[in-house]
Sequence to fold (138 residues):
Amino acid sequence: KNGGYSNEHVAIVNEYDAAIEDFTIEGSIAPDQAKLFAQAALVSDPLKAIWSRLDEFNNCDPARVNVPTLVVAGDQDPYAPLRVQSELFSNLGRGADRTWSIIADADHAVHLLEGRTRFIRTVKSFVQNGRKGSSSPF
Fold:
């Protein structure tokens, strides 16, 4: 191991087919939206996530998150079911506001689908209203 990571962790450049594979379940979103999702994923995260190492993603200790936090979930999300989101939200650190928003009839790609305006309103409201524990003027 090197710095807590095994030597098998080599950065892999994300490609379009991999971005589609990582973030969509066939048939869960229309092809046009899937394309938009993949394109957005490539811009925002040019390195491919190694999903075979979920233990590393899951090692995050939510109790250590002590800043204003917004958790947005789609009630039809096959990747992050509400029971998992509930556990995450319930275990977030104390001392700062936290908001959990569940968007109806939405899945993991809600920010690109019909629910995107509701998603944007949720994020905008969280940022504009400010939260206890934040030193930011937003």
Summary: The chain has five helices and two strands.
